[in-house]
Amino acid sequence: MAAKFHPLIAAGDFNSTPLGFPNVKTDKSGQSALSMLLESGEYTIMPVAAPSPSELTFPSTDSEQVIDWILVSAPCKLVSKKVYPVQFSDHQPVIGVIQIDAHRQSNAIGDVLRMR
User: Fold this and answer.
1) Which residues contact 49 (CB under 8 A, 6 or more apart)?
2) Rounded distance between C-alpha atoms, residue 112 and residue 81, angstroms
3) Would you say residue 105 lies in a domain?
4) Cβ(65)–Cβ(57) under 8 Å?
5) I need a surface site. Which of 34, 49, 98, 101 has the fewest CB within 10 A?
6) For residue 4, is it within any domain?
7) Any idea what DSSP says for residue 2?
8) Distance of CA 85 to the CA centre of its chain
9) How confident is the model over 78-99, as pLDDT tens digits?
């Protein structure tokens, strides 16, 4: 039987930043919530390294950190991401382009139908 996958696209305010990013908040073990989630290797984000000033999302004025994310798993791939400066929210909005591997998606739908 083909391996099962459950694609995930999650976007929003995660209130967390990976280790190595500006103003990261860690627990007693030195981990951040987002770093723990990313440890599995199942999910990808952008940026993957320390962000440029234009990639910071919070607060919206004089942004200091990235806490707003688009998180994806296979067969999805985050192709690009842009942060848009605004003054009407305390967060900068994030827009991303996601590519889905159609072959893997087709196989997954077939697996789900066969399970019924």
Assistant:
1) 20
2) 31
3) yes
4) yes
5) 49
6) no
7) P
8) 19
9) 999 999 999 899 999 999 999 9
Closest CA to 38 of 4, 10, 63, 6: 10
- What is the domain range of residue 76? 9-115
* pTM, two decimal places: 0.78
Identify the H or E element spanning 100.
Answer: strand 94-100
Query: What's the distance, CA 100 to chain centroid?
Result: 15
Q: Is residue 2 part of a domain?
A: no
Measured between alpha carbons, how far is residue 79 from residues 6, 53, 105, 112 in Å?
Answer: 19, 20, 17, 27
Q: How far is CA 72 from CA 6, 29, 42, 91, 116, in A?
A: 11, 26, 8, 21, 26
Distant-in-sequence, close-in-space partners of 21: CB < 8 Å, separation ≥ 6: 50, 51, 65, 66
- Separation of alpha carbons 60 and 62, rounded Å: 6
Number of domains in the chain: 1
